[in-house]
Amino acid sequence: CATYLKELERLTPEFEKRGVKTVALSSDDADRAAQMAEKVGADNLRFGHSVPLTVAKEWGLYISTSRGTTSIGIEEPALFSEPGVFLVRSNGELYFASVQTMPFVRPHFQEMVGALDFVKANDYPGRGEYTGAV
After folding, report:
1. In the chain, what are the domain boundaries?
2. CB of 67 closer than 8 Å to CB of 47
3. Residue 3, burial from CB neighbour count under 10 angstroms (0-12, 13-18, 19+)
4. Scanning 2, 49, 87, 132, which has the fewest C-beta atoms within 10 Å of its C-beta?
């Protein structure tokens, strides 16, 4: 997570230039979230904490059980949510979502910055908007 969040920290000013605010949310408690923010060197990226796992599930995130200490020496919580990336428009519309069952192969933030340029230039609408019968 730290490497991924460092990249988001680095690119947060680019997102802001495009009118996008960034925040890293976690079900971790305040102390653990603060440790991650420090590890990432967060000057631009905001961190939130204590997201209830019920809310994480409502957002479609997968919940995992602890496997103890990770390969980099971090003790996993008993239950935690796997990663997700969401772009939400100011009107509350979910524009982009990526959820994962593993902490690997995540969307690249640099590509998202480029996609935002395309979206704005072409007034590209959100997709997945159909909610009728299939």
Report:
1. 2-122
2. no
3. exposed
4. 132
